[in-house]
Amino acid sequence: MAGTGIINLDMLGEKITKAAEHISRLKEEKLRLEETNKELKEKIDLLYILNGDLTRELEILRTEKKKTGDFDQTREEIKGKVEEMLAKLDQLDV
Fold it and tell me: How far lies 16's CA from each of 3, 9, 21, 22, in Å?
């Protein structure tokens, strides 16, 4: 009977050792995951900053494009008026 108790005690010791090793691995994995999580949060923060910068730059480009479009429209209007005046001058030369 004493032999069975020792065997059970040895088995319990092995189970405790395995459980301790498993807990140790889980702690290491937790630390790795926390570090990865921290890195990912930093990348997300950087992406938000870049997104804000790109949004501002896009607005600047849209404003510039609108100004260019307005300029092109004004230029076309001036061209049309000049052509009208030239046509009127041609009629006067008759």
Answer: 20, 10, 9, 10
3-state secondary structure the chain: CHHHHHHHHHHHHHHHHHHHHHHHHHHHHHHHHHHHHHHHHHHHHHHHHHHHHHHHHHHHHHHHHHHHHHHHHHHHHHHHHHHHHHHHHHHHCC
Q: Looking at residues 67-72, what average pLDDT do you find? A: 77
How many residues are listed for the chain in this entry?
94
* Interval 59-88 mean pLDDT: 84
Does residue 70 carry a pLDDT above 90?
no
Q: Residue 81: its pLDDT value, please? A: 87
Determine if the pTM surpasses 0.70.
no
C-alpha angle with apex 62: 58 to 65, nearest 5 degrees? Answer: 135
